[in-house]
Write a structure and sequence with these properties.
The chain is an alpha+beta fold. The protein has helices spanning 26-30, 94-123, 136-152, and strands at 10-24, 38-50, 56-69, 75-90. The protein has a 4-stranded antiparallel β-sheet with strand order 1-4-3-2. Helix 2 (94-123) packs across helix 3. The N and C termini lie far apart (50 Å).
């Protein structure tokens, strides 16, 4: 008896682009000394939605990066970036689509986001910020846990 061949999942990046970006060099505006030790905080949010064309999805990685001087708790710079990828995804079961969109798709676009962050911070007068790899699986699990706890507590899920 021949087993039915399952077609493996496929993903193609159809396009990627900066949806929104803002870089504010607060230290330069305030005339702060450039030799301060930075403390950098990075927040990552992900969003995904189905597009009109069948099998096409848009995944947006939103980064909010704030650098403060450790010595005086002064903001040095703020970088906000929304980077989107358009993906054609086939042969992924519907119950696995949500994690696929929020784990695998961000992995594909992250190297481009890293390069943009490095270029913008360097062009903004700082050493290039080389983001460390992001574990999108852990990020996804943490968000599921946060939502479950909020639901248990009767809080609205944002």
């Amino acid at each position: 008896m021949a087993e039915e061949q399952q077609t493996p999942p496929s993903m193609n990046v159809l396009g990627q682009f900066i949806r929104d970006m803002s870089f504010e060099n607060v230290a330069a505006q305030k005339g702060l000394d450039g030799n301060l030790q930075p403390d950098i905080q990075v927040q990552v949010n992900l969003d995904a939605r189905r597009r009109e064309k069948d099998g096409n999805y848009e995944v947006v990685m939103k980064l909010n990066i704030e650098s403060k001087a450790k010595e005086m708790d002064q903001v040095l710079f703020i970088l906000e970036l929304e980077y989107a990828g358009i993906f054609k995804i086939e042969n992924v079961p519907e119950d696995q689509m949500h994690p696929f969109l929020l784990i695998e798709c961000p992995r594909m676009i992250f190297p481009y986001v890293r390069r943009i962050v490095g270029d913008v911070t360097r062009d903004g007068g700082y050493p290039p910020l080389n983001l460390e790899n992001i574990d999108f699986l852990s990020l996804y699990r943490a968000e599921l846990q946060r939502r479950a706890e909020a639901e248990k507590a009767g809080q609205p899920i944002a």
